[in-house]
């Protein structure tokens, strides 16, 4: 009897935890009907173009969990001192400026052709549903939700906690005109107070006209989704942003696959490509890109400038914190590609063709 009571208590605690606001909610009603009609949705979940196991052959969830929690860690898994960063006042950026400002990990503020975007903002001091887990590196967390100006568009690539942060997204709700999200993710935002009419929620292939003659296309990525136990009941995406003056690829999280070449052939060449580079490992080679994969993706996309993100804020993999930037810059030099590496908060002028950034990760 005592064990039964204990089991009931544990199950009740789990139920209460996963129904906290931070976990969002599952798609239901008209949204779920729309998901079930999607050609991307089969056997009760969204699918990648290619077979994509979340854990690669030769690994298991138990082994990956053991290595992450109990194995001996590299001494530079986390930086030994504060990550260099610059606190640019985003609210003072003029509307005629075209800028990219990295906010750490995969979060960035983008303004072009008079239109502002905030992509995958995680401006809490943690990249998880709980503030004591997956804490941000010192210095990488200098931007807070209150630093965000009035936004034309909030843009989300998928619903993992290190890309869709409940406290941040809730805090900026009243300063956000519209939110652009992949199919299913709108359910989370609606639970957090966003209105359905303020959501642009689509699947791969959809094209939407935005302000000032800008156009966004939802394009494939090779990843997965989910904030609760069930995975892949919401879609993940990359985006092609076309403006009167430039083309930008916004990659989100993605393992390497044929979709990069398909996107490059249809929409390229790109002036800029923002690509995931970090938090990789052999066990996740299908769903996260290694630096050499990033280089090949950039070649496939026909991009002039690579902006690597997904590093330098959280330790979500077992490589040294600065290894992704060391490797991508070295590979870029070998291939003659331009790798743009502003520090967190440093302004990248997208109208300029002369970019120079110091190797701040070596400081």
What does this entry show, briefly?
The protein is α/β, with parallel strands linked by helices.
Topology at a glance:
Elements: H1 2-18, H2 29-37, E1 41-42, E2 45-46, H3 61-70, E3 99-102, E4 108-112, E5 115-119, E6 151-155, H4 166-171, E7 176-182, H5 186-191, E8 199-202, E9 207-209, E10 215-219, E11 238-242, E12 247-250, H6 259-267, E13 272-276, H7 291-301, E14 305-309, H8 323-335, E15 338-339, E16 347-349
Parallel strand pairs: 5-6, 6-7, 7-8, 12-13, 13-14, 14-15
Antiparallel strand pairs: 1-2, 3-4, 3-16, 4-5, 9-10, 10-11, 11-12
Description:
This protein is of the alpha/beta class and 363 residues long. Helices cover 22% and strands 18% of the residues. It has 8 helices and 16 strands. A 7-stranded mixed β-sheet has the order 8-7-6-5-4-3-16, with no helix packed on it. Helix 6 packs parallel to helix 7 and helix 7 packs across helix 8. The longest helix has 17 residues.
């Amino acid at each position: 009897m005592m064990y039964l009571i204990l089991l009931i208590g544990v199950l009740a605690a789990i139920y209460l935890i996963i129904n906290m606001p931070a976990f969002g909610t599952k798609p239901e009603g008209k949204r779920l009907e729309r998901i079930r009609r999607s050609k991307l949705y089969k056997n009760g979940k969204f699918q990648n173009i290619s077979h994509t196991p979340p854990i690669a052959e030769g690994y298991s969830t138990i082994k990956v969990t053991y290595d992450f929690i109990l194995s001996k860690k590299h001494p530079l898994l986390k930086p030994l001192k504060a990550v260099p960063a610059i606190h640019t006042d985003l609210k003072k950026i003029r509307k005629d400026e075209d800028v990219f400002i990295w906010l750490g990990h995969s979060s960035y503020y983008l303004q072009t052709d008079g239109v502002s975007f905030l992509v995958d903002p995680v401006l809490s001091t943690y990249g998880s549903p709980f503030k004591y887990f997956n804490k941000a590196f010192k210095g990488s967390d200098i931007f807070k939700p209150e630093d965000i100006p009035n936004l034309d568009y909030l843009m989300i690539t998928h619903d993992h906690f290190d890309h869709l942060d409940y406290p941040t997204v809730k805090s900026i709700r009243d300063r956000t005109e519209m939110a652009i999200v992949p199919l299913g993710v709108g359910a989370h935002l609606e639970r957090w107070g966003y209105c359905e009419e303020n959501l642009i929620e689509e699947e791969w292939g959809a094209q939407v006209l935005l302000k000032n003659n800008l156009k966004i296309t939802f394009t494939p990525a090779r990843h997965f989704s989910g904030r609760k136990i069930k995975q892949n009941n919401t879609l993940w995406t990359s985006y092609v942003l076309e403006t009167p003056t430039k083309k930008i690829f916004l990659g989100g999280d993605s393992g390497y696959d044929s979709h990069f070449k398909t996107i490059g052939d249809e929409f390229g060449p790109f002036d800029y490509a923002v690509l995931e580079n970090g938090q990789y490992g052999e066990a996740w080679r299908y769903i996260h890109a290694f630096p050499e994969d990033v280089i090949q993706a950039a070649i496939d996309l026909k991009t002039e400038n690579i902006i690597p993100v997904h590093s330098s804020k959280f330790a979500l993999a077992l490589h040294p914190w600065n290894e992704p930037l060391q490797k991508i810059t070295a590979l870029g030099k070998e291939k003659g590609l331009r790798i743009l590496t502003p520090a967190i908060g440093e302004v990248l002028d997208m109208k300029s063709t002369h970019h120079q950034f110091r190797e701040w990760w070596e400081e």
